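Example record

The entry below shows one chain as it appears in the dataset: sequence first, then structure tokens.
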Amino acid sequence: MKQSIVPTYCRAPSPELQRQLSDTGFLTPLIGLSKEKVKTTAGHHIPLDVHFRSGDVVQVYCGLTSLVRAQLKNNGIVTLSAHDTYSKQDCAKDFLKDWRISSPEFVDSLSQYIHTIKVSDSHTSKEGRIQADWSRVGKDENSPWIPFDREAVLSYDDTQQSQLGRTFTEVESARSLLDIIAVSRPGRRHEKWARPKRPGRELDQLAIDSNGNLVLIEIKDAKGTSSEVYYAPLQLLQYIHEWRHAFGWLSVSRQLQKLIDVRVRLGLMREPPPLTGGIRAAVCFGRDERSDEVKRRYYEVLGVVNAHLPSNVQPVETWSYGDRGPQPL
């Protein structure tokens, strides 16, 4: 373990923000949006997804973008904003602004905004729709896990700590081996493998399962760029090692548990068992529409990745989401 590198994950809302989100608090209507759907211009109904961010921020997602972003300031002001595709619409002008927490017009203004805003398919189709589908997992006892956060990024003290905290010999070894495969194995019809890219910092979803394991989830559109699909396990390998290291610190596990506890109290998720320290990892598609060649490459990458996992992490799982909901592949 990299003893000198201590990441953090401070996303749980402050006691004051929790008060404003509870019972008859000013921001309680935002919690109610977790049960709402919006109709896109193409006629699709997309569920809204409510999450917390550092700095006392509540973010309401619609697919991949933020429909509402509310930040509670120290002076009793709530600043509202949204993704550009929404903030530039006429109906946003009287809503996306600074509000005093005593303003009685907020509830009606929020309702009018949600029911008037135009949501196009550009941010809610493909991976955005898949994100929305996987955000609904966890509503019943048969679910494989319960999601509790998305766009998960660990924080470090500075750039150097960030680079060191995301560097692992096992990941570099797997990437080097896959780079050799990419160069030496053209694939069928002489289509060359893409060279593996270095992954980003942002994990698509965090969840908890019935055994208290932290579940790391990378969501992909099976019809997307083929190299992004078959290299998805390698991308996840980076996150597995980073979160395995982070989860070894009591401070991070407490921060995650605090976030889960707040979401349960506010009715945003059903109550799971406490985090136990175990980790699962899964690549999650919508419908499994991979070609035979992409599947072949995917499982070859998966084999390399599973050989480079931390000793106490089980093999990476693969799931799809279709008409019957989540299904293991």
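Notes for this example: The chain has two domains: 15-116, 127-328. The mean pLDDT is 91.
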